[in-house]
Amino acid sequence: MGKYAILLDTRFCTGCNTCFYKCVQENRLHESANQGYARTMVLIRDKGLFHHRCMHCEEPSCVATCPSGAFAKTPEGIVLYDSQPCLGCKSCVIACPFNIPQWDMKKKEVIKCTMCAHRVLKGKQPACVEVCPTDALEFGLYEEITGKAKQIAAENKLNIYGLEENGGTSVIILTKEDPIAIGYPEVSKSATKARGPKTIVGTAAVAALAYAGIKKYTERRAEIEGKKDE
Amino acid sequence: MGEVKLKRRDFLKIGGITCLSTLFTPLNNLVPFISFAEAAESEAKYSITKKIPQVCARACECDCAYNVVVGVDKATGIERGITIEGRPEDPVSRGKYCIKALGFVDGMYNPDRLLVALKRTNPKRGVDQDPGWVTISSDEALDEIIEKMKKHKREEMVFASPGDPYSNRLCRSLGVRRSDQRTECFGTHYYLNALMVTNPPNKYYSSTYTVTHSIWGFDYSDTKYMLWFGFDSFSKCGKAGILNHIAEGKRKGTKIVGFNPLRTPMADGLMDEWYPIKPGTDLAVTLAMIKIMLDKKIYNEKFVKNYTDSASLIDAETRLHITNSDGKWMAWCTEHKRMEPIETCDAPALDGGPFTVTVDGKDVQAMPVLQLLKENVKDCTSEWAAKISDVPADVITRVTREFAEAAPNVCIPNLKRDPAGPNYANSWRLMHTINILHALTGSFDHDGGVLFLHDVKIPWLEDVDPPAKPYPPLPEKAPDFRHEFPVTEEIYQKKDFSAPGHYGMIGYGLYKTDMTKVVVFKGPHRGLAALIQPQMTEKALEKMDLVWDWDLYLDDIVYWSDYVLPAPHQFEESKLDLRQYYPKYPCLVAGEPVQKAPGDCIGWGTIAKRIGLALAPEYWTTDGSSDPDKVIEGNMNDAALKAVGVAENTEEFLTEQNGIWIDKKPYENYKTIREIGYGRPNGRVRLYIDEFVKVSHEPLPKWAERWTSSEGEYKYSLLITRAAWHMHADPNFINNEALNVVSEKNYIDCVWISPGAGKKLGLSEGDSVVLETNPKYMEELPRPVKAKVHITNRIARNDCVLLFHGIGHRSKWLKHGRWGYRDGDLIPQKNPEVSKPHDPTGMGWVEDVYVKIKKA
């Protein structure tokens, strides 16, 4: 398998959120969605449409910070999460410069896009891409997608977001307006392994989170084991 | 940053924890990459057991064809509808579908669905009353309803229902008025099209007319230039059957210029130019466009001469078309200098006059329609329109020229609440001008422009099972006052009983008169409580003898209902659809039930037959008897399939052709207009509407102010739109918690104002506000709207406020419908006496409202 990427040409996005609900149905995420957690959602903002979705970074901060190896970057370019080893420390939530991972309080796991790995493995497109009424989303090989993104951006004087942010990502977004003005986070070009705490209070907070996570680890393992036995 | 002092003990504690957590961190670096195939979610969370073809209905005008994917949800082990899969072969959806279609799938299993019939035991109706529901079988409920209906005269009953074949036959056979509760928003288009383009029923007008009651679709894929007068409402942002075509056109280079005080996401991405027009002034721009086209002679003269009444002569005295003894329009021949039938005149005059002609032995002065149009718009310069609309004059001039140059592959799409919908009392004038612009550019009945219906139809019930004798006359008076609007009454009574009704006046009629004692609601969750001033309807229903409702949920209307009969979900019904929304090719597509309707659900056809057999049996049996064994079958779908030789019946069609048939023949430009237009078989578009003269209205469009005006604090013009994932407070969507989350995150639960208006009112984001309609225009039963405010520059003007339609309800039986105001609370029911001088069709005025905004 090759390395993949998604191209989002926001000129064709109408904010219909069909991608959001398709993702919910495809991945059976109704309960999480009811709580307000979504793997992808389009938000109508003053300057344009903001897609809150995992960027699948080249050097993911979530992978770098996760103390338990619950996150992994695959050679296919997809950043995956596994709830089994997850401690629930939420360091990924703090670390992600794009503010993507959400902690589902009820299910006690991280909500984050898998780029529909189960579909891609079978040669299908991610569900959100397939469903988009205007084909604003396109799935393909990384090199082809980035090449196309650059070409479209140059021809139409569009901004590119995701090509270089955080060291590059596998989701490339084209916008008419400045993406930062729309609401996309301003992220440095080089990979931020983690958004480390900058103050002693922050350090204490992270440490407390880690402590809480470790404390919960035992009961969570027991819970997971219990589930396995059912 | 302030300095933080830590005690030594705390420092050691935190340090220890930090070290501990650092120990864990490198673990992930041992396995930075896993194999993709080893992903935790490498398998689908459901296994597919079957795919059922279905056709969307009731969600929008597109009627996309798709498959409902049924499978076993691995988490629960239950087999159920999982999701939707597109059908690329469908010419409308082309493999796409929308969020509402997905919502319908989960709607089937919504725990609040009504599955049994309910009967009220508390005779007092109202939102503050417990109805004291008792369950009853649907059969028993229907028996009791029928017995109660027998006690009432036909003029005391009204069916609040759209004109579907069964509702039509039931009302016609009982001699009861049907007051359409939800298609009024298509009324302005429908009646103007009926008066200008085709006089229904034409040979292609089908029992499954497009949901918009439209006789055409727009060729978004192949058009070169589109003008959107508010067409890009938020609801359009989700209509997959339109969007996939617009996107294709856009990728091929369609130019789109939009006029809308609201900047929608469609404007962000798809529009080349956007102008925040002053609400209710689109008509000024279209009148100026007509003037420019006529003055500069940049119209399609060939189409205008051959396919419209532009050359036909109008009698200066009667102000009506002059016709010969065959009823043919007459033109002034510039060669023979005499009046001749328009069809045989070689050199008809499009302008000039007045000409002296002899009619019935008397000399009269007459002028061609196009000359009259020129005179009507003579003062409508771009500069004049710019002052009224705030659209720059040079833009109007340039856009008109570009539009004419791109013709005939141009269009001004209009459906529902966008251009010329029910928005304003003078929307009929706007629709009139849009049709004239389509005629001047020759884009009517032309690919790349306005596509007329194809020549395949699904017959009406009367076609397959003709009534044994003529239907009884309808009561002289209608509770929705339609009888006081001769233009629409004529069409409803004599030509098309399915015509949109005067929903905007039914509440006024029920409240202000005592003529009605029985009200029947067919699925009101799509209309009544979500639309115009429901408070007047609610008050009126308190005094009725019988109110019953056929519904999918217990929504607001059941507070006033004596019986509620459970309806099947739309995916539990068979369907056949013509794809009239994009009628480029003749096409039939079928759908079959995804599951048997659960509980004691009862279909509308069954209800209609039961009531019909009980109250007017002679119209419901094949031989006019009362014999229930001879009840009509009403198999319209099989008849449609047989007529085109596709299959003998729907089952065969589904089995052998997967339920889809397309005749991909090339679109024949200007063919259908001959077959459906005025004067057929040599049909034409009629620009000049004689019927309006007879009711003291202008037969050609003229500028008119809105019937209400901004006054004092009541200065915010009401704009209404709808989220892509909502319908008229339909519980399929508002009772879906996930969709509520999307609404809240997108401020759909708020009212939107501009930053300028917010500043003036001293409001901040999220403040609670109260909106009140000017009491001068809403003297009775006002119900102010309370909501949070969202301040956004998407509202580009300081004189507007945007409300979202279809989010409000009060039913305590909908667990997830936890919020929502109702835009309709602010829109006064129409007083027919006020409406008549402004609108000969009685269809407009939804947004003719100015409100006051104050901090709550």
Characteristic terms for this protein:
heterodimer; A: 230 residues; four-stranded mixed β-sheet; 9 helices; 36% helix; 19% strand; B: 856 residues; alpha/beta; seven-stranded mixed β-sheet; 28% helix; disordered N terminus
Q: What can you see in these coordinates?
A:
- The complex is a heterodimer of chains A (230) and B (856).
- Chain A has 230 residues and is of the alpha+beta class.
- Chain A has one domain: 2-Layer Sandwich (Alpha-Beta Plaits), CATH 3.30.70.20.
- Chain A is 36% helix and 19% strand.
- Chain A has helices spanning 18-26, 30-35, 61-65, 91-95, 117-120, 127-131, 142-156, 179-182, 200-229, and strands spanning 4-9, 40-45, 48-53, 71-73, 79-81, 102-104, 109-111, 137-141, 159-161, 171-175.
- In chain A, the strands form four sheets. Chain A has a four-stranded mixed β-sheet with strand order 8-1-10-9. A two-stranded antiparallel sheet of chain A has the order 2-3.
- Mean pLDDT of chain A is 88; it is low at 197-203.
- With 856 residues, chain B is α/β, with parallel strands linked by helices.
- Among the domains of chain B are: 46-107, N-terminal domain of TfIIb (Single Sheet); 716-855, Beta Barrel (Barwin-like endoglucanases), CATH 2.40.40.
- In chain B, 28% of the residues lie in helices and 17% in strands.
- The radius of gyration of chain B is 29 Å and the shape is globular.
- Mean pLDDT of chain B is 91; it is low at 1-32.
- Classes of the chains: A alpha+beta (230), B alpha/beta (856).
- Chains A and B meet through α1, α2, β2, α3 and β4 of A and α1, β3, α2, α6 and α7 of B.
